[in-house]
Specification:
Largest sheet: 8 strands, mixed
Number of helices: 5
Number of domains: 1
Strand content: 15-25%
Distance between the termini: 34 Å
CATH architecture: Alpha-Beta Complex
Number of strands: 8
Order of helices and strands: HEHHEEEHEEEEH
Length: 199
Amino acid sequence: MAYSDFTTLSNLTKQFSLILREETDLFVMVPEQPASEFLTTTLQDNVPLALAIDTEKARSEMIVAPILIELKKQFKGQISLFSGIAFNVDIEQGLNGICDFLISQSAEQFFVVAPVITIVEAKNDNIKSGLGQCIAEMVAAQLFNEREGNSIATVYGAVTTGSHWKFLQLTDKTVFVDLNEYYLKEINKILGILAQPIL
């Protein structure tokens, strides 16, 4: 079993004794983080092509990666960004496999030190289909931080098609799922939410 095998939320919540709470406007108070002119231009050029190609790989490379690289730039290298990295925390519980993207609260780029955000690319443009995998990765990040003595109270997650984003947060055993979805026209808000756990 691996992260991608967690497709049923009911089984996932039972296995890890999680409470699932759906919230409206979970991140409404989070301030926007202005996108650079470079990111704005990059997305203007890349998004139409990525959507025309319409594959997960195209969306990942042309939309998601530039947004996350922008976040890393805004924090001047104080965070690390991982793409397609093995994150094997507890194989017996199925908390293992490849993470699409992982952001750490550490500048260390050679290995994961303090995971704070997990990002899952939605399969077949279906945001809901990625929620189980994202929550499983968040649980793994929480367990990793506990074992390493990292004082990170909340782990954040996102499921994205590139053009749509849904955000989650895990505190103790409670998973909060924002019922809102954010779109690329709200890129400053997306960056603000991504920056929230790092500020």
